[in-house]
Amino acid sequence: MRTALCDEFGIDYPIFAFTPSEHVAAAVSRAGGLGVLGCVRFNDTEELERVLTWLDDNTDGKPYGVDIVMPMKIPTEGTSLDLGAMIPEEHKKFVDETLLKLGVPPLPEGEGREGVLGWLHSVARSHLDVALRHRPVLIANALGSPPVDVIEKCHEHGIKVAALAGAAKHALSHVANGVDIIVAQGYEAGGHTGEVASMVLTPDIVDAVGPDVPVLGAGGIGSGRQVAASLALGAQGVWTGSIWLGTEEYRNLASNQGWETAFTRATSSDTVRTRIYTGKPARLLKTKWTEAWAEADAPEPLPMPLQNLLVAEAHNRINASHDPDVISMPIGQIVGRMNSVRPVAEVVASLVAEYDEAVGRLETYRK
Ligand SMILES: Cc1cc2nc3c(=O)[nH]c(=O)nc-3n(C[C@H](O)[C@H](O)[C@H](O)COP(=O)(O)O)c2cc1C
Fold first, then answer.
1. Which of 201, 127, 140 is nearest to 174 (CA)?
2. N or C, where is the chain less crowded by C-beta within 10 Å?
3. Which ranges of the chain have pLDDT less than 70?
4. Domains and CATH numbers, the chain
């Protein structure tokens, strides 16, 4: 499993792993892939500074990447306080009543009320400034191209820029803005996702951007067979997210028995694409919480960034309750195959072994 991206980044396998956990990112990089740390959760840049220092010290000198979120269409400034004033009372009432109905207890006084601010450009820029003091080899951006000055700044530091795309026209606009690598993120994926499935999207984007722009296939990749399929569709590597939630290292970030019960029992039909997490369509585990928002009396989700501020405390309450029936979490359709929790190195090794087996099998079909 070697493509030109392996030489470009000095990695053994073109397996890129998006993860909010520095422990997972470090373990993927040490295992020969490229761990990419998601920064959106860091409202506090000092914490990000500490985490990236830890990553520098725990990757055995191997490369890693950083993911920021600078949406193309969103208010660019604001604080949780003044944005909070824009949230309608009707929405707050719905959230309170739904939590009551679902039996989710309140948090102890003073805990867990802050929402994610990492998708405000001012905050994402501060993430970038911190990252540039460390040694990422890749900066990735979700929800559009990062602004051109951000791309140029990365290039000045010798850092490649990747951006996620859910349609060929978005990939072309990323390339026109100077993005180096396109992540073709299919409908199956966890988190923000478009409407075209990977089987169609990957070759669409590969053909649209042409042979000089590497494409990573994303969405629904959880086995070596799926890696082989993605490379067969023209990708030069894969970009994965959901499978790393089912690893021992991820427990350092979110030790939650309810969550593990929920995803190990879920089938590939147990996800839903909805705007209730952030205001933009994102794939989540289907639970009583997502179902409550699908009821006829539920309000329309608010636009980004208001929706996440609205549900931030609810998410923290739900997570603290450890109730697998209510949990709120982005995850892709690959959840149906995530039936156990394994060390990251074992997941990487099995992707590589299954890939070899799949390619070997295809080779026999040529005879
Ligand atoms: C829990 C979770 C959080 C995510 N958050 C982000 C994010 O902050 N930035 C981003 O670029 N992608 C994010 N994604 C999407 C991943 O980068 C990746 O594209 C996706 O998980 C690939 O599809 P898969 O889930 O089928 O592997 C997230 C995915 C998951 C599962």
1. 140
2. C
3. 73-81, 112-115, 255
4. 4-365 (3.20.20.70)
